[in-house]
Sequence to fold (170 residues):
Amino acid sequence: MLYEIRTYGDNCLNVKCEKVEEITEEIKNILEDMVETMHEATGVGLAAPQVGINKRFFVLDVGDKVIRKIINPEILEMSEEYTESDEGCLSVPGIYKKVKRAARIKVKYQNKDGEEVEEEMTGFLAKAFQHEYDHLEGKLFIERISPVSRKIISKKLHLIKKETEKKLKK
Fold:
């Protein structure tokens, strides 16, 4: 089943998500559907709030032949070294801006089978993980860009928000 991806202006994107207490068949099915939705939208990550679910999980496929289904993630360590590169988001369509992210992170999460995983991440994987993790904290990447960049995209954001509000009223 494909989900509708929520867009900028939808309040579900601004809420800190709740911990998953039990990994049920329903959660596993939702994760599968989120992978399908992410691939259909040609994204590399998709977080639960982006499909209207206020729970701490997301999926990632950064092209390393591993589809990660990440539940209750924690960032344990972040390097002092940062990288800066363009980011986009399925919830903020058509906007790409430079974002600073930790170059290396150490994370802990549960996989779909409830097993605890600890992983060190660098490069694109680290960036994508941090981006999706932000969604669980109620943050969008546009909150991490410079004020000048924010001003440049303000008209586009306003249009996306108006379109979202129109959809939500239906």
The longest strand covers residues 68-78. Strands lie at 45-47, 57-60, 68-78, 82-89, 92-102, 104-110, 116-122.
